[in-house]
Amino acid sequence: MARSTVLVIDDEPNILSSVRRALELEDYSAEVAGSGRIGLEKLADQEIDLVLLDVMMPEMNGLEVLEQIREKHPAVVVVMMSGNATIETAVSATKLGAYDFIEKPLSSDKLLLTIQNSIGFSKLKQEKAALQAKVEGDFAMLGSSKAMAGIFDKISKTAPTNGRVLITGENGTGKELVARAIHNNSKRASEPFIKLNCAAIPSELIESELFGHEKGAFTGATQQRRGKFELAHGGTIFLDEVGDMNVGAQAKVLRVLQESELERVGGDETIKVDVRVVAATNKNLETEIAEGRFREDLFYRLNVVPIELPALRDRRSDIPELVELFLRQACESNDMTPASIGSKAVSLLMQHNWPGNVRELKNSIERLVILSGGASEIGTDEIQDAIPTVKSVRGAYTSGVSLKDLVAAAEREIIVEALANNESVSNTAKELGLERSHLYKKMKALGIKN
Predict the structure, then answer these.
(1) Of the candidates 310, 333, 355, which is a domain's last residue?
(2) Cα(269)–Cα(112) distance, rounded to whole angstroms?
(3) pLDDT tens for each residue of 160-170
(4) Is 381 exposed, middle or buried (0-12, 13-18, 19+ CB in 10 A)?
(5) Same domain (yes/no): 305, 206
(6) Which backbone phi and psi does 203 adopt, to 5 degrees?
(7) Is residue 181 domain-shared with residue 89, that is, in the same domain?
(8) Could you tell me if 119 and 30 are in contact, meaning their C-beta atoms sit under 8 angstroms apart?
(9) Model pTM?
(10) Per the domain annotation, does 137 fall within a domain?
(11) Is 139 inside a domain boundary?
């Protein structure tokens, strides 16, 4: 394991030498600087895990140095040191982002414990940031098509409010991603996001899952349990496949929406909850209402802001961007060398109807990465070997593929080849007999990057 590096910034030479010696005895890598200016220079040149920073120094005092560290090196943890610290100084340092504050003369034990705790805190921050980045990557929403622009606009307008949202669309279109985006961009983002797949819970257990139960409420209820609505208090509950919820549970959900209160199964205590509800379904709820399987009053309660997600076949221009993301994720998750995918291969993927939508595309790209055996570039042959359902239509009629999509696929291949044979977009436009601005628009619509 690599040693942690500590930078000590202090204008007293004896402090620098004694602290350096103590750190090296504990197997830390130590750097020292006799002024704030030198310390900032070392931070710019080296990887530093923690800074021990004196408050009282000539030219530039510790608080001024701290301010610059926070601005230029926000990930570095800073511990302040002072022999004549005041409460006001400590408060100022904390507001500026110092992790801790220790007094001189320095106790070796206290100093080393503070450093150990500070570096531990730094590592936790880094792990959290890495996890957050992974989660955001896994749940990223992409798309530059007109259809997705409308979805993003609705999310941006809806998220800051408390309005209920009903998300509809085919399986695999990304309904959960929309729900998470609404939550993550709301005032409730720091509170829980609780998901319940209504189709996956047996009808006799759905009420217990939603509202919780008391001990002894039914056979097997050996202890009290809080339900999803209680767990989501202050945050968002996502009722996925809400169209599969039985009518009895629907009536109780309606009460929660109307009164903001519930009772656990087998209990009589009224529990107040503050929850934003986002629901999703792949069913036509108006048909379900007409056939008596869904309550009309609940539908209107949930359908404050409707968001209908387009099928992937209706936004094919987003496929190149999605392929790039899924390719990177698949390589990372399977510990494989990053791969690229050829332009003709992308054009081939754009011709497929993707009945399973974005989910099918993501799974297919992962299969492609695994079966390609670590190839640096994936081409059309690899695609047709790994995903037999994807077939080139190259200008010929194929059942289920519209003329518009056939033309778009052909146009894309022509433009990609023309760009490869010319030195610039201007030359390509001239050769194809197009205005340069027109070519740029076509490239954007077809997901071609210059």
Answers:
(1) 310
(2) 52
(3) 999 999 999 99
(4) exposed
(5) yes
(6) -60, -30
(7) no
(8) no
(9) 0.63
(10) no
(11) no
